[in-house]
Each structure stands twice: as C-alpha cells, then as structure tokens.
Amino acid sequence: MQTSAQDVLQRVFGHATFRGEQAAIVEHVAAGADALVLMPTGGGKSLCYQLPALLRDGVGIVVSPLIALMQDQVEALRQLGVRAAFLNSTLDGGTAAMVERQLLAGDLDLLYVAPERLLTPRFLSLLERAHEGKGVALFAIDEAHCVSQWGHDFRPEYRELTILHERWPQVPRIALTATADPPTQREIAERLQLDRARRFVSSFDRPNIRYAVTQKDNAKRQLLDFVDGHRGDAGIVYCLSRRKVEQTAAFLAEHGHAALPYHAGIDAGIRAANQRRFLREEGVIVVATIAFGMGIDKPDVRFVAHVDLPKSIEGYYQETGRAGRDGEPADAWMCYGLGDLVLLRQMIEQSESGEERKRLEHRKLDALVGYCESMRCRRQVLLANFGEEYAPGESGADGAERACGNCDNCLQPPEAWDATEAAQKALSCVYRSGQRFGAAHVIDILRGSDSEKIRQFGHDRLSTYGVGTDLDARTWRGVFRQLVAHGLLEVDAEGYGGLRLTETSRAVLKGRQPVMLRKVAAPRERTRALRAASAAAELAPADLPLFEALRELRAQLARDQNVPAYVIFHDSTLREIAARRPSSEDELAGIGGIGAGKLSRYGSQVIATVATAG
C-alpha cells in the first residue's frame, strides 16, 4: 500500500515525500477506514483524501461548502492529470448533465459537490447508481467544523450528512478541518457519527506566520505603514463594517495599492470579479468583511491584516490561516482598540441569540482579548485555545519565555510597568463621573480637558479632574483597554458603551491589589521592525531575474487558460527551478511540485525560459 501511495505521490503530485501524518492518513483511509483529520491550513489536508481516492476503485465524493472555489480546486487537479469535476449551482443544465453522465460512466476520480446539492433526492439517486456501477471510493467531508452549532461557520446541512454512512456504511469517510477547539472536535465526531473514527490531530501551529498585535492609534496610517512593507504582495485586510471596507479599499488604492472591496452588500457580479482578480492576478489586496474567505485556496497570500477586532479566537485563527499557505514567510497583523471591544460587546447583547449563546460569544471574545493583551508568546496563547501546548524556547535576559521567535512578543519583548496608581485614578474617575461615560470622556477628565462636554456635566469640578496629566492620551487609552481586558472595568453593552466598575475593582481602589500592565510601544517603529521577509528573499540575487521570468511565463500560461497562476506552479516550485536551473526535462522532473502531468504540459517551455533568461 505504501509503495503504491508513494508512487502516486511522486508521479501525479510531483512530491518526493509526505508531510507530517499524511502518509498514515492516506494508508488508513485507502484501506477503507474512517478518519477525522485536524490539520492547519496549508498543512496538506487535500492530499489526505485526493490520494486515497486515486488508490481506491470508484469516484471520491468531496463535500465542500466552498462553491466559489470548487472550480479552481478542480482545475488544479486537472492540471495534474486527475479526472475531476464539480457539481453546484453555478453550472448550467447542459454542463451539469454532462458531469452526471461522467459520474455514472465511472469517468471521474474526484467529484466536488456542495452539501445542499448532495442531500437532494436526485443526487442521492445518482450516487446510488454510481455506487452500483464503478463504485464510490470514499466520502470526504471538508470544513467539517461547519457541523458545529456553536462554531463560526455553522451550516445546518452538515447535520444531515450522516445519511452517507447510513446508506453506504462500507464506504470510508474522512472529515477534515483546520479550525476546531476541543469541544468542537468532540461535536464533529458526535454529529457526523465518527466516534469510532481514528483521529489524526496535527499541530495547529503555522510556524511561517509572524503574529503581531498593536494598539489602534491612527488605524489608517498604521495599516498603510504595514501594507507598504508588502508592496506588490497579495494580502487580505479584514474590517468589521461594509462602510469601513469601502473606505479602507479606497484609501489603499489612493496610495498606490491594487486594493479591492468585498462584502455582501456589493453587487454579486462585481464581488465575483473582485474575487477572481484576487485569485488570478499578482499583488492584489482584498479589503473585506468576513463574508470573504472561508477556504480561500490562494497559496501565496503574504499577509492578513485586521483593522478591527475579530469576534473570536477561532475566527481569528481561520482568517489569519489564509496567509502563507505555501509555507513561505507571511504576516498576521492586527490593530485594535477599546472601541472595537465595546462595539462587539454591544453587537452580542443586541443580537437575537439566546442567553446561552450570548454567554458563549462573550467567553470567546474574552479569549481573543486575552490573546491580544498577553505578554507571553502569541503562539503559546493561540495554540492553547486549541488544546495544544507549545513548548517554550530559551528564556530572555529578563527571565521571560521567548518561545517561537516569530511573533511580536518574542521579537520585541513587551515591558511591564506598575500601573497601580494610574488604575486607581482611572477607576475612581469612572466612579465619580457616574459610571456611564466611555473611555474618551473619562480620559479628558483625567487630563484636565477644557471641553464643552466636561463643563456641561460639571466634570471640571470632580476631584479626579486633571489628576492624570502625567500620562499622554495614548497611554491612558492603553490603560483603559487593559483594565477592561483584565476585568477591572466592564462595558455597559446594553446601553451606550459606558464603563462601570466590577467587583474586582474594589481591591485595587483600596490598595489591596497591585496592577501591572504592558507598556504601549510606538506603533510605527513596531510595525516596521516586525515586517516578515518576502518569499523571494531566500533567492540569491543572481537568481532573481530567472525567478521573475518564470513568474511571467506562469502568468502568461494562466491567462491563456483562464486559471489562477498558482494552479500552474507555486512560488516555491519556481524558486527551486531558478536556483537549480534544470537543463533537461529529466532534471526538471526532480523539482518539487512537478508531476508527470505538468512535466508533459509545460516542461519544454520552462526549460526554454531557463535557457533564455538563465
């Protein structure tokens, strides 16, 4: 079995070796057993069902909610010489009928289908006939976390996928996800009747992604500083509102970036065109709400930026996971402030969800805020949420852990300061002003501002008026944000976002509990210092012209076939070609990512480009 799998891996996919647990998963499923696979984005999940489908008789049925991206996934397989197709609502009647005939004739290796289509009586009948004919090799249930009612991508149709096991109990099933905390993992197994399936849990770590969080100061300028360090790179910028998406896209475009907006309120045709440009052109930035992105398959996204706080740590992990799927250096950068936290608290309280759901969403938001405010290694905090312990590395001179060496807290260790006196002033001012104002107004009182609003409420006569002039407004914003994060202040989410004391505030006000907070770093210096290297930086300068020539060849081939460039070759493949300069197709066959299909289709053009540009 392993020899056969190894042969297909090399011959079809162009890879000499498996990664991580891929080999064990492929062998297990190809032998006819069920599996639940938890593997990070970019870890090679697709191969875990594609290869067993090629090893087993019949067609592999892939259930995927990603209608917009099935075409690109199928095209990537066809480039490898795999007989693949998809069935979803984007196909016209004639094309859908042709795919159905291919299914019944046994002319497909893999068929991608949306859960809504799969569950129709018509498709289940087709599947029955296919199974009686050439057979069904396996069922792959991708994005399996969609089955979780408490997850961020719940799809009710996923609950009904148990019908696959009930009707065809002998056909192996493999459920896959990149985003599931331990409770969600248990729910997937229960809901999909995979309790007895073997679980393969890979590390959720994405070591090539550099994580950084900064306090919101001038968000547009901070974002521009960050994006300027990625000029010419593909990236995604996430915003909370549609209005902010459009404003941010326009702002980046004004400053010379190819930035496009994407949200559910944009005309469907324009939205599809913008997504197509992002997938098929080099260096395009999409500014989006979370309506954009589940399962984005583009491997060369060099950064994901959040200019507003996401709703949960799971959502944040999934969104940042769209960066660096090719294994090359990538950035996950977030800029947030207390206003984001207030807004999200209000959104939770004002939703029509039940009390249990609201409590869960508040807990998820608390976990994300804890990640943002932590002084520990970001990876340790992030992975702990998924039940994974990240082993710390060496300690710094101050004794603090420097675990990953590739996040802001490891690269620029934050400083703590004794903020007990500042916290007492802040809490006292919140109390004396009536516990109904937001941080901006309370800061104005502390700093002795002579504003009309302060005079209107008589707050210039408070004992706390002007007692905070020793700290600038930016530092005070950091103090209030962290007091909320640490539970010493709470947001009146049902009202207008005013701040009020909590039970734990009393000990601080009475001097029984010290308060240590992290110092707020200067944003522009921090952003510049944390930029990740570009994917091409590992090349020797002498190889860069050939690398660019190969990218141009790839772009031309992609335009001719109307497919994304990464479907032809990944950057890592082009870089290896540029470094090794193969002079024959035999030598080219030894490059990672070039199987027999791509060698026969593009080998002569690649060799010619190496000879000309090299």
UniProtKB/TrEMBL annotation:
Record-linked InterPro entries: DEAD/DEAH_box_helicase_dom (IPR011545), DNA_helicase_ATP-dep_RecQ (IPR004589), DNA_helicase_ATP-dep_RecQ_bac (IPR006293), Helicase_ATP-bd (IPR014001), Helicase_C-like (IPR001650), HRDC-like_sf (IPR010997), HRDC_dom (IPR002121), HRDC_dom_sf (IPR044876)
Name of the protein: DNA helicase RecQ
Enzyme class: isomerase
Domain HRDC: 540-614
Keyword annotations: ATP-binding, DNA damage, DNA recombination, DNA repair, DNA-binding, Helicase, Hydrolase, Isomerase, Metal-binding, Nucleotide-binding, Zinc
Domain Helicase ATP-binding positions: 26-198
Molecular-function annotations in GO: helicase activity
Organism in which the protein naturally occurs: Luteimonas salinilitoris
Domain of life from the UniProt record: Bacteria
UniProt cofactor(s): Mg(2+); Zn(2+)
EC number: 5.6.2.4
CDD domains membership: DEXHc_RecQ, SF2_C_RecQ
Known catalytic reactions: Couples ATP hydrolysis with the unwinding of duplex DNA by translocating in the 3'-5' direction
